[in-house]
């Protein structure tokens, strides 16, 4: 088997035997664990979960902030053949209940800061049997399932012997999509897909001397790819709980990181920071930017970054397109096709379109485990995405005569904000739950950072005097922070089609006008918790 076609447990086991003291997982606070220590910790995690009667095929939800210990927990579950399900720490209410019940979680690891939110939805998660509480005391409220402190969970566990290694077709994780076309769906990712993403995107790049700085959530697919990527190279992975533009470069210098990823508005936020004489004095030599920012040349010059790469993929896909050396001539392209995949750009009948014309991008691979194994518990959604032997990405592309692919837009409505794909339907569903809201329409408004801000156009119930600020305060308590709209416009009517679908075309013509309420202009901040 190729060295880059192994699962994370297999790569970890090999490094722990060959060079156990080599550093592997770190955080920005100074924590560091070697390959040998991570192996030992992961096997102890495995035994701890085994004592909670977790076994092959069981789903365990992980509802904690990003940390090296999160990754060790994931590996531990993998040793048992159990499946980790990462939960967005911003989730609450209906969205939290939906994901937990959809995946059929048997157990959940929850940080004490999120315990109240979990407790509020337990009556809607009948599959849940065990709650492990980390970071503080357990709930004093009687819960409908077993509750155990992390100390008790950990202290009773031993370091077990390594079980059988996973196969490429075994499920590595269930990642929930951002829900760009409706409610979030749980994508079943085989190890072969994670392996392909880690190896092919970065083929010929990085060595054991490199360190990757990870400012992204671990519940995203990147949180699964980058630990394997750096383990393959024998390098270090540095975890930060949440992206910070003010701390970014000090983190890079302190941790001696040589490679990182920036998504969405991150590059724009870094450029907005005050210029300093030491901006270009850092060890970073490679940046993975998704997408490539408009001001990438300015970014590279100011911060002294020799090389920028980009790629195109989805939670459901292996690597599809890559551009390992972005320059002026190709900076607007998502890249060229990678080895081992087949792509097609088609019309609404799945017929290929000529180069230069726009159509939907489709993908397939020779080995079935290079792509998703379907949506968990959603055969309808799986069948819709997988048609005629191809996975339908839902994204519009065009290809030029030299084989460069260009992303045009998503085929269906979504808002891209801060690296998150926000489903307009999810936003509308939550807004519509307000007792004084008749109908809501959500659109994206282009921001000065290069992505989009969320705007809602709201038709109130008859006689309502609800203000924009009052509605915003209600939304803050009922939706994740990244979904909270910047703009609110109260309208006389939200038009609908005959089949009751909201029509948004008119709202997009004048997205910000004299009737639009802007929370930033009113200095209204949104708390993180």
Features:
Rossmann fold; nine-stranded mixed sheet; globular; 529 residues; single chain; 15 helices; GMP Synthetase, Chain A, domain 3; 25% strand; seven-stranded mixed sheet; 27 strands; 3 domains; alpha/beta
Q: What's the total helix number? A: 15
> Order of strands across the widest beta sheet?
2-1-11-10-12-13-14-15-16
Gap between N and C termini? 46 Å
Strand content: 25-35%
Helix content: 25-40%
Task: Tell me about the largest β-sheet.
Answer: 9 strands, mixed
- Helix- and strand-based class? alpha/beta
- Radius of gyration equals 23 Å
Q: What best-fitting shape do the alpha-carbon axes yield?
A: globular
Report a brief summary of the structure:
By secondary structure, the chain is an alpha/beta fold. Helix content is about 25%, strand content about 25%. A 9-stranded mixed β-sheet has the order 2-1-11-10-12-13-14-15-16, sandwiched between helices. A 7-stranded mixed β-sheet has the order 7-6-5-3-4-8-9.
């Amino acid at each position: 088997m190729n060295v880059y076609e192994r699962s994370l447990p297999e790569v970890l086991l090999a490094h722990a035997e060959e060079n156990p003291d080599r550093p592997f997982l770190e955080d920005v606070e100074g924590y560091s664990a070697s390959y040998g220590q991570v192996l030992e910790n992961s096997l102890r995690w495995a035994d701890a979960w085994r004592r909670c009667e977790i076994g092959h095929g069981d789903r365990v939800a992980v509802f904690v902030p990003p940390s090296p210990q999160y990754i060790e927990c994931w590996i531990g579950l993998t040793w048992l053949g159990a499946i980790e399900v990462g939960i967005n720490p911003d989730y609450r209410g209906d969205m939290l209940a939906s994901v937990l019940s959809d995946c059929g979680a048997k157990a959940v690891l929850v940080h004490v800061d999120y315990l109240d939110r979990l407790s509020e939805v337990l009556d809607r998660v009948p599959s849940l049997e065990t709650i492990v509480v980390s970071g503080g005391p357990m709930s004093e409220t009687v819960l409908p399932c077993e509750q155990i402190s992390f100390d008790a969970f950990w202290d009773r566990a031993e370091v077990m012997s390594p079980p059988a290694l996973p196969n490429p077709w075994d499920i590595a994780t269930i990642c929930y999509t951002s829900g760009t076309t409706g409610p979030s769906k749980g994508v079943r990712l085989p190890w072969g897909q994670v392996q392909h993403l880690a190896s092919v995107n970065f083929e010929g790049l990085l060595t054991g001397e490199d360190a990757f700085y990870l400012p992204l959530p671990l519940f995203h697919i990147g949180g699964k790819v980058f630990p394997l990527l750096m383990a393959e190279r024998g390098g270090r992975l540095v975890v930060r709980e949440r992206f910070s533009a003010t701390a970014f470069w000090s983190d890079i210098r302190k941790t001696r990181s040589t490679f990182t990823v920036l998504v969405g508005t991150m590059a724009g936020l870094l450029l907005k920071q005050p210029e300093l004489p030491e901006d270009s004095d850092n060890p970073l030599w490679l940046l993975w930017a998704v997408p490539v920012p408009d001001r990438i040349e300015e970014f590279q010059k100011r911060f002294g970054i020799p090389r920028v790469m980009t790629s195109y993929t989805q939670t459901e896909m292996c690597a599809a397109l890559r551009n390992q050396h972005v320059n002026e001539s190709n900076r607007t392209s998502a890249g060229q096709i990678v080895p081992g995949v087949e792509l097609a750009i088609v019309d609404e009948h799945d017929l290929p379109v000529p180069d230069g014309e726009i159509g939907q991008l489709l993908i397939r691979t020779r080995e079935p485990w290079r792509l998703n194994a379907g949506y968990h518990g959603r055969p309808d959604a799986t069948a819709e995405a997988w048609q005629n032997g191809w996975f339908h990405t839902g994204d519009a592309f065009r290809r030029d005569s030299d084989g460069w692919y260009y992303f045009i837009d998503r085929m269906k409505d979504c808002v891209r904000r801060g690296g998150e794909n926000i489903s307009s339907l999810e936003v509308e569903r939550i807004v519509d739950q307000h007792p004084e809201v008749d109908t809501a329409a959500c659109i994206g408004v282009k921001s000065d950072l290069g992505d989009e801000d969320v705007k809602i156009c709201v038709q109130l119930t008859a006689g309502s005097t609800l203000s924009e600020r009052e509605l915003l305060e209600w939304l803050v308590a009922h939706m994740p922070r990244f979904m909270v709209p910047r703009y609110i416009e109260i309208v006389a009517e939200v038009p609908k089609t005959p089949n009751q679908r909201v029509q948004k075309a008119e709202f997009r013509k004048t997205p910000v006008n004299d009737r639009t309420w802007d929370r930033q202009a009113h200095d209204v901040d949104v708390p993180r918790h």
